[in-house]
Amino acid sequence: MTDSADWEKTGPTWKRHAEQVAGQSWPAGCLYVVATPIGNLGDLSLRAWEALRRCDAIAAEDTRTTRALLDAWGIDTPLLAAHRHNEREAAGAVIRRLSLGERIALVSDAGAPAVSDPGARVVREVQAAGYRVVPLPGPSAVVAALMASGATRDDAPGFAFAGFMPSKAQARRKWLDQWLAWPVPVVMFETPHRLRAALMDLSMAAGPDRRVTVARELSKRFGKSGRWRRAMPSPGWTRTLTGNRGSSCWWCMPTSRRASRTRTCHPSNAGSWKRCWRNCRCATRRGSAPGPRAWRVTGCTPGPWRRHESGRRSVPAD
Q1: Where in the chain does DSSP place strands (E)?
Q2: CATH architecture of the domain covering 142-260
């Protein structure tokens, strides 16, 4: 059967479902939080299409990105800017329009608004003003990543979503230490221009036995995912990820309790016990007196460490 024959057969079915969705309840004076495709435009649901078409205005994170989506689906609804830098003003504008009985849709560039994206403040202030908020579920990079990872089971469905990594190196290392201490799979995002530095910090924080998976463009034709036991991927995978324009999704499997008490020295600290002590504190103590001879810098070998009695810094365990 040809593609044209398939469409002639299924076209009436799509039309019937679209008419059923259009006939559902679409109350006025309501904020519709709509999930949009994370890469593949075909992932937009019928309810999302009807909401974007029916609403009086769409509050978008980036009006240029959203306009491209609307043009692809033949939607000409006006747009309002609602990003992280004007979210307070955008919330006020949305509430004023809701008071007039209008329907407003809230979208992000991709995926679910207010989930590691702007929009949460708009939702809170709309609810505080007494107006209804209706979520329209759809594509999610977090759920897609978990579906492709096999990281969870029906008897152990827990996971932690950490969002985007901090941009500063010191804050990123502290952030990784906090999240990787969780005894469940941890899902996180990273942008391509910070990928090399993030991979280096992850190799330091994760240790040698943690399984790490990175995926990009999961909903597109050339989507790809890679898995490795140690935190550093192969050079080929690093080039593939850094050449990607979009953000990548990472998930780290939990490690054993014994392995979670170890820490890996950053490669830039090798050869200097002082720099290792200040930055990573993963040197192994050999004597009681501080100094180069009392410490053995382990390079990339993890060493146990503990919190100092004063609580102000970490020191290697005896």
Answers
A1: 30-34, 57-60, 79-81, 104-107, 132-136, 160-164, 186-190, 212-216, 224-228, 248-252, 262-263, 284-285, 295-296, 303-307, 314-316
A2: 2-Layer Sandwich (3.30)
Residue 237 neighbours by CB under 8 Å, 6+ apart: 214, 226, 228
Provide the phi-psi class of 130: left if phi over 0, else alpha when psi is between -120 and 50, else beta.
left
What is the secondary structure of 9-55 as a DSSP string? HHHHHHHHHHHHHHTS---SSEEEEE-B-SS-GGG--HHHHHHHHHS
DSSP summary character for residue 153: B
* Single-letter code of the amino acid located at 100: L
Backbone angles phi, psi at 288, to 5 degrees: -85, -30
Query: Which bin fits 299, alpha (ψ -120 to 50), beta or left (φ > 0)?
Result: left
279: number of CA atoms within 13 Å, CB side?
Answer: 21
Domain ranges of the chain: 27-139, 142-260, 263-316
Beta-carbon count within 10 A of 7 CB: 10
First to last CA, the chain: 73
Six-digit token pair at 309? 């009695």
Give the alpha-carbon dihedral of 131, 129, 65, 149, to 10 degrees: -80
Q: Burial letters for 250-288: b for 16+ Cβ neighbours within 10 Å, e otherwise?
A: bbbbbbeeeebbbbbbbeebeeebeebbebbbbbbbeee
The two structure tokens encoding residue 73: 């689906």
Least confident of 118-127, 130-139, 236-245: 236-245
For residue 202, what is the DSSP state?
A: H
User: Is the Cβ–Cβ distance between 113 and 65 less than 8 Å?
Assistant: no
For residues 176-204, give the mean pLDDT: 84
pLDDT in tens, 51-79: 999 999 999 999 999 999 999 999 999 99
Q: Which CATH architecture has domain 27-139?
A: 3-Layer(aba) Sandwich (3.40)
224 vs 132: CA distance, rounded Å: 39
**Radius of gyration, CA atoms only, the chain:** 25
Provide φ and ψ at 269, rounded to 5°.
-90, -10
